[in-house]
Write a structure and sequence with these properties.
CATH class: Alpha Beta
Structural class: alpha/beta
Shape: globular
Mean pLDDT: 96
Largest sheet: 7 strands, mixed
Helix content: 40-55%
CATH topology: Rossmann fold
Strand order of the largest sheet: 3-4-2-5-1-6-7
CATH superfamily: P-loop containing nucleotide triphosphate hydrolases
Distance between the termini: 12 Å
Radius of gyration: 17 Å
Number of domains: 1
Number of strands: 7
Low-confidence stretches: none
Bound molecules: adenosine-5'-triphosphate, magnesium ion
Order of helices and strands: EHEHHHEEHHEHEHEHHHH
Number of helices: 12
Length: about 240
């Protein structure tokens, strides 16, 4: 299963969710690949891994086998600014867009592929959406993030009109949830009113989540008993049952 973790809005927890979903799947013995499809390269920065492995593969500068970086039991293809070169190639040759990832990653046999997406409607994001099976949408528990959810659904619908098999929305994941703040509670309530069963249990806000990347560690390594680490584990349990 190929899962795109996307939201056009910045800072909604896409990278944090991608890393913790992929690492938890890896820990459970699933053959898992984590792709960073963002020129910001935040997966590599957060885990202290060398950047630009995915653009190297997409631009045929490196073979898939030698570009993969092992992080615990997960294989990672890091993003980075070289993805902008891929982006400009997609503008020059839009016909390669739908098949790009499939063609370059066809030797990869993983049970789960998790794609951390950039906060945009870039051609790269479009290419990844042609490749994926499902979408996971992290939404921060604040007003502006809520307003943006419709745009993402619209983006997915736009791609679905060009695909034979539609992308399934796996779940909408409320992130940075602070039970003491009214806006957090309201956000989850509003999401549930609109998207009912698609809305997962929220991931709580914790300063540990902000600290972990500065140590190059996941929350499972840095603060495994923190609320967000426990929430991600719980989320992955539900993910595997759905
Ligand atoms: N549960 C949480 N509690 C507190 N801080 C969090 C939580 N999840 C993520 N963060 C922090 O919020 C910031 C944004 O998170 P993240 O990088 O995962 O978002 P993003 O959607 O990938 O951002 P971008 O759109 O720039 O790619 C980071 O500093 C991250 O450490
Ligand atoms: Mg990110």
């Amino acid at each position: 299963m190929i899962i795109s973790v996307l939201n056009q809005k910045g800072g909604t927890g896409k990278t944090t969710t991608s890393i913790h979903l992929a690492m938890a799947l890896g820990q459970r013995g699933f053959n898992t690949l984590l792709l960073d499809n963002d020129p910001q390269g935040s997966v590599g920065v957060s885990l202290r891994l060398e950047p630009n492995r995915l653009p190297d593969v997409l631009l045929s500068k490196n073979s898939l086998a030698s570009a993969l970086i092992a992080k615990d039991s997960v294989k990672v293809l890091t993003g980075g600014k070289d993805l902008l070169e891929v982006e400009s190639r997609l503008h020059r040759q839009p016909e390669i867009l739908p098949g790009l990832f499939r063609e370059k990653l066809c030797e990869m046999r993983s049970e789960y592929t998790v794609i951390d997406m950039a906060p945009s409607r870039s051609q790269l994001n479009r290419a990844a959406l042609f490749y994926c099976d499902t979408a996971l949408i992290p939404v921060a528990c604040d007003y502006l993030s809520l307003v943006g959810v419709r745009d993402i659904i619209e983006f997915i619908d736009e791609i679905n009109r060009e695909r034979q098999d539609p992308i399934r929305i796996q779940s909408i994941l409320p992130t940075m949830y602070d039970s003491r703040s009214r806006i957090s509670q309201e956000s989850v309530k509003i999401l549930r009113e609109h998207f009912s069963h698609l809305v997962a249990e929220p991931i709580r806000m914790t300063t540990r989540a902000k600290e972990a990347p500065s140590h190059g560690k996941t929350l499972y390594e840095y603060a495994k008993r923190s609320s967000a680490a426990l929430d991600y584990i719980n989320f992955v349990d539900h993910f595997l049952q759905s």
